[in-house]
Every structure is written in structure tokens, then in C-alpha cells.
Design a protein that fits this description.
Structural class: alpha+beta
Radius of gyration: 39 Å
Strand content: 35-45%
Largest sheet: 8 strands, antiparallel, barrel
Strand order of the largest sheet: 18-19-20-21-23-25-26-27
Oligomer: single chain
């Protein structure tokens, strides 16, 4: 120890040693109180700045302001490129719509009643849609994979055909197929095998084929085969028969696979011996009026090269839908409400509106049996893009015959010419044009027909054309 310290009083010596960090002679190190809160905040900010510089690729003394300016320039370049790409895409879409509108506009000329290029549609007893396109008659098969929403309670179906070298046909059909009705328990409707509880299925009978259904029979046309799984003797497929769920079983023939082929209604089953076993034998069968109903719709033909369109509409009955009788003896009024569907085109080569595709709409007919006339309105249009259109089409007053045919000029006795239509867009009506016709059918218990169907076409000169069909039920 320093000799001078020996001369100090003991108390003062202790104080000096404490100030010097000697801890009164202890060997402990001095305590570091650490940074203050303010100092810690500054260090945290400095660390964040350093991390940001690293992300930006800056050196410790790099100019952040210059880097931000460079990034802003890059961002503007990307934004300009996106704007240009969006404009190019919009221009391409506009050009494509203009081309479609032109083809469909031309294809809608004289969409109904054109004697130079007859256009019509029909439904046979099996429900096959057949269209007449000039001198060509083409049958269309139902696209069983297509999901088509019902329209005002009328079931929707898509039909197609692609004949070799003749382009493509498409039809959208809406039908007032009856709601399922409950019948007897399955084991009372059918005699099941006493041992297996199964029903033999012979689809050579069209009525049997119409009751066959399964999610596994999912082809849109033709036949689908089912190979026998390993270590089994039968193919087993979940499905339903006559509205009752269960399992189809097929024992294949020696050299073939079990197979299901699309029929006009349902499926024909072949390639082996088929049976059906209900999940519950006491479930009740569900029947529909699936062989007699009214339909309407539109059809479109695209040529093989896709450059020429032809479109029209139709109203057709499947089976023997009962014609109306005794209309001239009725008095009072009736309202028919339902839907309409068809094709439309607004075409302009000079910067005007180009819009084309299929539409759906509401249909309303008012029958006055005091003077045997019918008027109608098609409105609440929805276009091909799923958006509403401010359109309406007036179906001018027409006579209705004793048998329910809607066609004729009320001002001219005995006249059976279809009456005209008036297309209104955004509150502005075009001149009367086109034509409409149809029928009211199937007298109810009160003698008033229960169903109305028909077709119409209209023009909004010089740029608009449409054609459609409608179906409505008495309210």
C-alpha cells in the first residue's frame, strides 16, 4: 500500500478505497449499470437502419434518398408496363367481342321464319332435340356433364352435336318437367330376389333405362366400361333406381366389361348381368312426369372454321302435351309468368357498343278471354357477362285461337300472321319489328290452359338483334 495512505485516519481510508472501486478491500468487479432507456432506443433504431441498408444493398455510408428515388423509378416503370398490358388485354377483348358480335349479328338475321334458311327446333318422344338449319336436320344429344341452372322453375339442359366436318351445334333447353311424386315402397313396386334382395335390371325396356342413374355414369356421350376389380366376381357401383338409392351389381360376360351407355333417357346397361339392390327396400320410389312436358330454348351453329354463326329459337313439346280446347268459350283473364332465353348481338364497326352472347329474362303473358287476345313482355334481361341489361321487349297484342295457338292480327278477322315486337333499351323504344308466336296448352280443371310457350325475335335498328324462346305457367 502507498505509504501516504498509511498516514490517513481509518475512516477516511475506507472512503478513499470505496471511491477507487476497491470495495473496502473486496475482490469484486464494479457493477455496470448498462445503457439508459434513451440509449437503448437509439441503439435499436441504429440496428434497424443497418438492417434496412443491408436489404437495400447500401454500404454503411450509402445515400438512402438516392436509393428510394431509384426504387420509385423502377416502380413507375413496372406500373407503366402493367398499364400497357392491361390496355392491350382490354383492346384484345374489345376486338374479340366485336368479332363475335359481328358474326352473331349476321347469324341472327331472320332468326325465325326465314324461308330461305329455315330454322326451327323440335323434341321427339324420347326427348332428343333436333334442329333445322336450312336444308340440314341435326339431332343434338344431352350433355349430361353440364350443370344448367333452372330458369323460373323450368329445368335447364344443354344439348350438343359435332358432326364430322360440319362445325358445332349447341342448344339450351328449358322444360317444365314435373316435380317428383312419391310412390309405393320399393319392395312393393318391384319383386326382389328372396335371397339377395336384388332386382334384375333389363334396360332393353326404355322405361327401365330412364330410371337408371349413378354419379359413376358421368360420360357426356357414348359408353363407359367398368373392369372387374381383382379378387371379386362382380362390379359394384353406387347409384339409384327409380329414385331410390342403392348399389348396382354386374357379373361381366366372359370377354367383355360391364358397361353403361347413354340413352335418350337414363342409361342402358350391358356387358353382363345387372342387378340393383336398394339400401333400404322400404324406401319409396320417386316418379316424375318425365315423358310429357313443354320446352323452349335456343340453338347456335358455328361453322367448322368458326367464322359463320347461325342462331334461332324454338318451343317444342316432348310427348303428347294436351292442346288447349274451348278457348273461345272462356271469359275473364289469365296471367302466365315464367322465363325466356335466347341469343342477342349489339354490333357496331364505328366505335359503338359491341355486346353479344346468350341472355336469360323474365316472361309475362296476359290473356284476355273476353276478346281472345294475348299480350306479353320480356324484361329483366341478364346478358352473357352475368350483368343486368336495361332492356325490355313488348310482345304486341295477338289473337289466340280456340285451340290455343297465339298468332294473328286482332284487327283483321281470320288473320294468322305473327304479330310484331318492340325492343326498348335504356328507356328508348325502337320501331316495331320481328315477330312472336306461341301457344297456350293443357286446360286445367277450370278450363283455362296451364302453360304458355313460344318464340320471338326483335331488332333495335340498326345495331341490335335478338331471338329467344319463352315458357310460362298460369298464376
Amino acid at each position: 500500500m502507498n505509504s501516504n495512505l498509511k498516514l490517513l485516519p481509518a475512516a477516511l481510508l475506507v472512503a478513499v478505497l470505496a471511491l477507487a472501486g476497491c470495495g473496502g478491500g473486496s475482490d469484486s468487479e464494479p457493477v455496470d449499470p448498462g445503457p439508459t432507456a434513451e440509449q437503448q432506443l437509439i441503439m435499436d433504431l441504429q440496428a434497424e437502419i443497418a438492417a434496412l441498408r443491408t436489404q437495400l444493398g447500401l454500404s454503411a455510408d450509402g445515400n438512402i434518398g438516392e436509393t428510394v428515388a431509384e426504387l420509385q423509378a423502377q416502380l413507375k416503370e413496372l406500373q407503366d408496363a402493367k398499364t400497357a398490358a392491361d390496355k392491350a388485354a382490354a383492346d384484345a377483348a374489345t376486338a374479340a367481342m366485336m368479332a363475335t358480335a359481328m358474326k352473331l349479328y349476321n347469324g341472327l338475321e331472320h332468326g325465325l321464319g326465314n324461308t330461305d334458311n329455315a330454322r326451327d327446333g323440335a323434341s321427339d318422344a324420347a326427348g332428343v332435340i333436333t334442329v333445322t338449319n336450312g336444308t340440314i336436320t341435326q339431332a343434338l344429344a344431352e350433355d349430361k356433364k353440364a350443370m344448367v341452372d333452372a330458369l323460373k322453375g323450368w329445368a335447364g339442359m344443354r344439348h350438343t352435336a359435332e358432326p364430322d366436318g360440319a362445325g358445332m351445334y349447341e342448344a339450351m333447353v328449358y322444360s317444365n318437367v314435373g316435380d317428383p311424386t312419391e310412390g309405393d315402397p320399393f319392395n312393393e313396386e318391384y319383386t326382389l330376389d328372396g335371397t339377395t334382395g336384388e332386382l334384375a335390371i333389363d334396360t332393353s325396356d326404355a322405361a327401365v333405362a330412364a330410371r337408371v342413374a349413378s354419379s359413376s355414369f358421368d360420360q357426356s356421350a357414348g359408353t363407359k366400361s367398368f373392369k372387374l376389380p381383382a379378387n371379386t366376381v362382380r362390379v359394384m357401383i353406387a347409384g339409384s333406381y327409380h329414385g331410390v338409392s342403392g348399389t348396382y351389381n354386374c357379373t361381366p360376360n366372359a370377354e367383355t366389361n360391364c358397361a353403361a351407355t347413354i340413352a335418350s333417357d337414363g342409361f342402358t346397361l350391358g356387358g353382363g348381368a345387372w342387378t340393383f339392390k336398394p339400401t333400404s327396400a322400404t324406401d319409396k320410389v320417386m316418379s316424375t312426369n318425365d315423358t310429357v312436358y313443354a320446352s323452349y330454348g335456343w340453338w347456335l351453329h358455328k361453322s367448322e372454321d368458326g367464322m359463320t354463326y347461325t342462331a334461332s329459337a324454338f318451343a317444342a313439346d316432348r310427348g303428347d302435351v294436351t292442346d288447349a280446347t274451348g278457348i273461345t268459350n272462356l271469359r275473364g283473364t289469365a296471367t302466365y309468368s315464367g322465363g325466356a332465353a335466347g341469343k342477342y348481338a349489339l354490333y357496331s364497326a364505328t366505335g359503338g357498343t359491341n355486346d353479344a352472347g346468350h341472355f336469360t329474362a323474365d316472361a309475362m303473358l296476359n290473356a284476355n278471354f273476353n276478346d281472345d287476345t294475348v299480350t306479353g313482355t320480356i324484361d329483366n334481361f341478364m346478358g352473357a357477362d352475368g350483368k343486368m341489361r336495361d332492356w325490355s321487349v313488348e310482345l304486341k297484342k295477338s289473337t289466340v285461337s280456340d285451340g290455343g295457338a297465339i298468332a294473328g292480327d286482332p284487327a283483321t278477322s281470320g288473320n294468322t300472321d305473327p304479330q310484331m315486337t318492340v325492343w326498348t333499351i335504356d328507356g328508348t323504344a325502337a320501331a316495331a319489328s320481328g315477330a312472336w308466336s306461341g301457344s297456350i296448352q293443357d286446360n286445367g280443371d277450370d278450363g283455362v290452359p296451364k302453360v304458355a310457350t313460344g318464340t320471338f325475335n326483335s331488332e333495335y335498328s340498326p345495331s341490335g338483334r335478338m331471338v329467344g324462346g319463352f315458357g310460362a305457367n298460369k298464376q
